[in-house]
């Protein structure tokens, strides 16, 4: 009997779709034992730790939601291995307002995901880990940002804003208006301090040092092509699926101040063009001249952290096993 754990958020705006397209359809699957984990309204780390406690080993953990739900579930799978030695398979189905991470898995249906799991299919996926001041912070599958973009994402975590977004009736103009007023208030703010961006090789040795002057607004690390297309990263660099790579990913630190540029990055996807400078790296160590309070954002979750002296961004030593499918352009499920 194959075991499956479905991770979902009953408070999400698309929960009815999850109920219809996941829970109703999985009932007809033979030879599987289905469990559920409901995201609690606490914090991402707490939920990931609870998922890790639920994993017994050998399950397929399916995140049915958007970027935030998928990242929490993936971290639960990683913690289950690191804390309890329990290995599980992971995949994600796109049922969120933002689905950059779930789309990496090929926009699977529940039938496709369960079918491939039953067949014993799977491939290696290399997440990126973040440490702050030498302590583990979070792991991400697709993208991680520090600075302006990360802080602007916090606008949509305000209680009243989240309630309106849940209705599904707000649209892009509501989001753009919120972002516009946030920009007017914060356009002169320094988001990153002075310091150094140290590029590392595959062994963790420093191979290049770039000075951070304090004018830079954002550091961005990317592990997959979906967000790279939003950012209009150069083809062949940030647009590559680095989650297949054992050691390397793509990153850049740049000044991105400007309302139009922020709209390009956050909302008007694919209509306006913007390119973020950057390069392949075996890891990044950001060291600030003095401790700062910075905003960090990874796949739907934004957090402000105080006393940040350094941030280490590197691939995890061991990959996780995932279920995904390669689809041709315009191929439908």
Protein model, in words:
This protein has 333 residues and is an alpha+beta fold. It has two domains: 2-126, 3-Layer(aba) Sandwich (Rossmann fold), CATH 3.40.50; 130-315, Tumour Suppressor Smad4 (Sandwich). The protein is built from ten helices and 16 strands. The strands form two sheets. Strands 6, 7, 8, 9, 10, 11, 12, 13, 14 and 15 form a ten-stranded antiparallel sheet that branches. Strands 2-1-3-4-16-5 form a six-stranded mixed sheet, sandwiched between helices. Helix 2 (44-54) crosses helix 3. The longest helix has 18 residues, at 67-84. The protein is globular, with a radius of gyration of 19 Å. The two termini are 26 Å apart.
- What's the mean pLDDT score? 84
Q: Rg to the nearest angstrom? A: 19 Å
Cα shape? globular
Task: Say how many strands there are.
Answer: 16
Helix content: 25-40%
Major sheet: 10 strands, antiparallel
* CATH topology value of the largest domain: Tumour Suppressor Smad4
Stretches where pLDDT is under 50 for at least 5 consecutive residues are 264-274
Structural class: alpha+beta
CATH architecture of the largest domain, please? Sandwich
Strand content: 25-35%
Q: How many structural domains in the coordinates?
A: 2
> In whole angstroms, how far apart are the ends?
26 Å
Just give the CATH class of the largest domain. Mainly Beta
Number of helices, counting only DSSP H or I runs of 4 residues or more:
10
Helix and strand pattern: EHEHEHEHHEEEEHHHEEEHEHEEEE
